[in-house]
Amino acid sequence: MSSSLVETVDIKAPVSVTWALWSDVAQWPKFLSHVRRVDPMDERRFSWQLSLPGADKSFVAELTEVVPQDRIAWKTIEGVHHAGVVTFHRLDDTSSRVALQIEYDPSGFVERLGALTNLDSVLANYDLGEFQKLAESTVAGESPRGL
C-alpha cells in the first residue's frame, strides 16, 4: 500500500528566506518534529534518524533535483521507501508558499493506521507550521521559541 500527501503553507517571508532555511540540513530537526538527526554523507546523500509514534526509523535519502529558490526533490536509497519534493512559490516580495509532497510505503500497524486516518497529513501540517514560525521569526530578527 502506497500513501501520499500534499500540504502547503503560506509564510510571511520571501522565497529567499524559506529556501535558505529549508535547504540547510542543520535546520531540519528544528521544524520536522519526527526528525532526530540528519547527517550529510556527501553533497547529495543524507542519513536520517526518525522517531515516529511506535517506531524509530533510519534511512538514507538522495537528492534527485535541486533548483535554487524553486524546488528540492529526494528519494530514499536505503531503508524505508520514501520520496518527495518541496517547492517554493513567490506570492509577493515579502511572502511565499511552501508546498510539500511525499510518497511513501507505510509499514507496520502504526504507520498504516496513520496513513488511513490522515495522521500523516496532520503531522506534516504541524511541521509546516513549525517551519512557518521559524521563517517568520528569522525575517523578524527574533530567535524562535524552543529552537
How many DSSP H or I helices? 4
**Mind describing the biggest β-sheet?**
7 strands, antiparallel
Structural class, by secondary structure, is alpha+beta
N-C termini distance: 36 Å
- From the spread of the alpha carbons, the general shape counts as globular
Domain Coenzyme Q-binding protein COQ10 START: 11-116
Organism: Streptomyces mutomycini
InterPro entries: COQ10_START (IPR005031), ORF3 (IPR047137), START-like_dom_sf (IPR023393)
Protein name: SRPBCC family protein
At a glance:
This protein is α+β, with helices and mostly antiparallel strands. The protein contains four helices and seven strands. The model has no long low-confidence stretch (mean pLDDT about 85).
Describe the structure.
With 147 residues, the chain is an alpha+beta fold. Helices cover 29% and strands 44% of the residues. It contains four helices and seven strands. It has helices at residues 15-22, 28-31, 108-116, 119-140, and strands at residues 3-11, 35-40, 45-52, 55-67, 71-78, 82-92, 95-104. It has a seven-stranded antiparallel β-sheet with strand order 1-7-6-5-4-3-2. A hairpin with a 2-residue loop joins strand 6 and strand 7 (95-104). It is globular and about 40 Å long. The model has no long low-confidence stretch (mean pLDDT 86).
